[in-house]
Amino acid sequence: MPAGVPYDDALKRYRPGVLPTLRRDDSSVDELLKGYHPDHGANAHVALSVGVNRAEPCQPDLARYLQANALVDDVDLAGAQLVTTDVLVIGGGGGGCAAALTAAKQGARVMLATKLRLGDSNTVMAEGGIQAAIGEDDSPQLHFEDTLRAGHFCGEPELVAQMVMDGPDVIRWLIQLGMMFDQEEAGPIGGNLLRKKPGGASAARILSYRDYTGLEMMRVLREAVDLDPGIEVWNRCPVVELLSDEWGHCAGAVIYNLEWRTFVLVRARAVILATGGAGRLHLNSFPTSNHYGATADGLVLAYRIGARLRELDSFQYHPTGIAYPPHLAGGLISEAARSAGAKLINGEGERFVDELKPRDVVASAILRECAQGRGIERDGQIGVFLDTPTLELENPGILAKRLVTLTHLAHKCGHDAAQEPFLVYPTLHYQNGGVAIDKHGATSVPGLYCVGEVTGGIHGRNRLMGNALLDILSMGRRAGTHAAELEGRVTASRAGIGHVHAWQRELTLAGLPLDVKAPQLFPTYAHFDLRVDAGVRSSERERVVGGIR
Q1: Which of 185, 221, 299, 426 is the most exposed place for a label (fewest CB within 10 A)?
Q2: Are 106 and 216 part of one and the same domain?
Q3: Which Pfam family name is an example for this entry (predicted)?
């Protein structure tokens, strides 16, 4: 990549309050994406060698991970404790909580196992808001069309239609749980919900709370789960393998307790994977906006047991990740800033893209500017300016009132967002593809459901801002309800890891190594060591079975 314009030189050209004209660009969207988006290029994907998606394209780093050996074998599980439940939810973010709450409401006994703590997830880190067509100038039909168009018409129309139709009811449900939203005006009984227009949308339908919507959403969901007597939460208990029965159906999972370093076998008549995305694999060597536990665990486990996946070569790079300072690289500056009017400016002082185009277009335009020497370089980091000072000049107080997270982040790194623009560069943000599901969240493996970012089919090959939060709640509630209604229970003697043995044979026949193992659970720089503590006393092992609240 050519060197960019030195930061000090770019800052001299920058004029807060003076909006540059948008540079004319005669290239098509297809040319821009194929030329600069990381999903494209000669080495952008490889063909899978094993599994139900054999011969289909996959991002190279992810392919190695999907085609890895299991972390556990029969010896590891020989002395494991056994626990039974009706519905096992894996993941403690918004999708997992929504699924657990609705399953419990149907009368099912629910266990929710989460790798970190309940709520530690990408949901908490979602800043911009949630989409729902509630305005008089909007409709689910427009939302449907916008979503399909942004995803390059690769989304499943039935799944998209279901999600957008659920939108208004999801918002009502959140308000009933106690979630707060920004309002247009105050009054004796409150005002109208403030709606903002996101990139790629035809109407203003983003509902938010400041720029930490996901945190506020997770607050009420976590409280609801904690107060529900039908849900047992197991914190710091990642799932390392699924269990299968003699018919190949999903029959539970293997949990590894991080505190006691022991395995627990959980038998369930239904398993719901809500494990999130793959950002912490740092695909294509990009920084990421994802939380610490986003290591594609659900993709690996679902694929190994035989679930079909889709769009494994498609990922979203959010346009405005922090480029400087380096220790915050990849951290997100919400699209809410651009929705409010913040512009992108290159090293030559030009606007070079419509900031409210879909995310893949805006990210590709930034990558093009940097590749062609019009980026801005500072201490080895490159990017473009996000013009927050002009936004503040035109809307006094907006940074402190509507972009609280941005203002706080700027303060922490000694940056005054009202006086100096941010240096931004695309960050790995979202996994567009994933496990193929039906309208209930059910996969091709009976007994296994998936919700949220671990799935594919709703967002196509690019996601609109705000649709992720709607997706996890819409599908989470549906999957929880359907899973709780499954008939039949499976006894302990019928569950095991027979599918792992079949997988190992397939890897050997394909000439793939057995020493590469997954799921990874944590980023490689975490230096995490999976081992079993054989010295745990029996009384302590009973505490493992009871879970840790």
Answers
A1: 185
A2: yes
A3: FAD_binding_2
- At which of 449, 477, 494 does a domain end? 494
Residue 549 has a pLDDT of 27
Contact yes or no for 144/467 (Cβ under 8 A) = no
The answer to whether residue 485 sits within a structural domain is yes
Q: Is the pLDDT of residue 176 over 50?
A: yes
Range of the domain at 409: 5-36+321-428
In this structure, are strands 231-234 and 110-113 parallel, antiparallel, or unpaired? parallel
The 10s digit of each residue's pLDDT in 256-295 is 999 999 999 999 999 999 999 999 999 999 999 999 999 9
Q: What is the DSSP letter of 285?
A: G
Q: Tell me, what DSSP letter sits at residue 423?
A: E
Phi, psi of 348 (to 5 degrees): -100, 10
With residue 79 as reference, give the H or E element that holds it: none
Task: Note whether 382 and 376 are within 8 A (CB).
Answer: yes
pLDDT at 527: 67
Q: What is the pLDDT of residue 546?
A: 32
The amino acid at 348: E
Same domain, 116 and 14: no
**Location of structure tokens 């503040």:** 392
Instruction: Answer yes or no: 109 catalytic.
Output: no
Look up the pTM and report it. Answer: 0.94
Instruction: At 315, give phi and psi (nearest 5°).
Output: -135, 155
The pLDDT of residue 524: 87
The whole-angstrom separation of Cα 302 and Cα 275 is 11
Paired with 53 in beta bridges are none
> Coil, strand or helix: which one is 278?
coil
Q: Please name the amino acid found at residue 320.
A: T
What is the pLDDT, as a whole number, of residue 409?
86
Q: Say if residue 216 is in the same domain as residue 310.
A: yes
- Beta bridge partners, 288, equal 428
| DSSP-derived pairing of the beta strands 81-90 and 262-273 | parallel
Count how many domains the chain has: 2
Domain shared by 251 and 296, yes or no = yes
Q: Which of 205, 359, 374, 463 is catalytic?
A: 359
DSSP annotation of 496 reads B
What's the pLDDT band for 532 if we cut at 50, 70, 90? low
In a domain, 246, yes or no: yes
- DSSP string spanning 275-317? ----GGG-GGG--B-S-TT-S-HHHHHHHHHT--EE-TT-EEE
The CATH code of the domain that includes 253 is 3.50.50.60
> What is the distance between the alpha carbons of residues 322 and 332, in angstroms, rounded to a whole number?
6
241-267: average pLDDT: 96
Residue 146 belongs to some domain of the structure: no
325-350 pLDDT per residue, tens: 888 899 999 999 999 999 999 999 99
What is the spatial distance between Cα 204 and Cα 187, in angstroms, rounded to a whole number? 22
